[in-house]
Design a protein that fits this description.
Elements: E1 10-12, E2 18-20, H1 21-37, E3 42-45, E4 50-51, E5 58-66, H2 68-73, E6 79-86, E7 89-97, E8 102-107, E9 112-114, E10 117-118, E11 131-134, H3 148-157, E12 160-163, H4 167-175, E13 181-184, H5 189-201, E14 205-207, E15 221-224, H6 229-236
Parallel strand pairs: 3-5, 11-12, 11-13
Antiparallel strand pairs: 1-2, 3-4, 5-6, 6-7, 7-8, 8-9, 9-10, 13-15, 14-15
This protein binds D-MYO-inositol-1-phosphate (IPD) and calcium ion (CA) (2 copies).
Length: about 240
């Protein structure tokens, strides 16, 4: 927050993909904390800090600032997302929105929480009454696989569709019943590791576009309250 809405150093990773000094400072702080507290653990962070040294069964997956484009424009919708993986399974996830002081967290088999209070997905069972959210990949200008056709279809079938620019919060808002469903392609593991667990532990469903099991490294995700999941998968089918 010390960097928010101030003049900060911004660099371009791609034509529309930014990194700011806040992303880098946040990552340094988190990596320092992991190294200090859990020196043997491995970690995988978006801005380049990685350690696969040692044979620890634990690996931290970190997005130090999710929603960088929002952050850089002074739009108050971003978060810090941290997950702990144990032998390929995400065991806990925490997503913090410092603007609203909202901490979402989940521990495997122990439910999901917002600022310590238990949260559940919504109970809307019809896509036509659902509020959905999505995002567009950074290669939208050059790839045919750019979500525009799916966005068109969902816009015609759902009550409304939002595009908020912060994938980890999109998951958490499904978990808290604020959104009924979320879909996106080309997500990185750090965008989804904590959020996917938070949705599942809140009673929701997370899958790939075919409705099969979600793979953190495959980039394709559908997260919902479970009730509208079949209608979402149907909408994503090729014609
Ligand atoms: C991005 C945001 C955005 C999503 C992109 C992500 P970043 O993360 O989560 O909502 O559409 O796919 O890369 O770059 O701000 O950490
Ligand atoms: Ca991200
Ligand atoms: Ca990021």
């Amino acid at each position: 927050m010390d960097f928010f809405q101030r003049k900060i150093d911004i660099q371009w990773k791609g034509s529309v993909n930014l990194v700011t000094e806040a992303d880098l400072a946040s990552e340094e702080l988190i990596v320092h904390a992991i190294r200090k507290r859990y020196p043997g653990h491995r970690y995988l962070c978006e801005e380049g800090n990685r350690s696969d040294a040692g044979d620890s069964v634990y690996r931290w997956i970190v997005d130090p600032l999710d929603g960088t484009t929002n952050f850089a424009h002074g739009y108050p919708c971003f978060n810090v997302s941290v997950a702990l993986e144990q032998e390929g399974e995400i065991m806990l996830g925490a997503v913090y929105n410092p603007v609203l002081d909202e901490m979402f967290h989940a521990v495997r088999s122990h439910g999901s929480y917002l600022n310590g209070k238990s949260i559940r997905v919504s109970d809307i069972g019809d896509l036509g009454n659902s509020l959905l959210v999505t995002g567009f990949p950074y290669d939208i200008r050059t790839s045919q696989d750019n979500n525009l056709e799916h966005f068109r279809r969902f816009s015609l079938r759902a009550q409304a569709v939002r595009r908020d620019g912060s994938a980890a919060l999109d998951f958490c808002y499904v978990a808290a019943g604020r959104f009924d469903g979320f879909w996106e392609i080309h997500l990185a593991p750090w965008d989804a590791a904590a959020g996917a667990l938070i949705v599942r532990e809140a009673g929701g469903t997370v899958s790939n576009y075919r409705g099969d099991s979600f793979d953190l490294f495959a980039g394709q995700v559908v997260a919902s309250n479970g009730l509208i999941h079949p209608q979402m998968i149907d909408t994503l089918k090729d014609t």
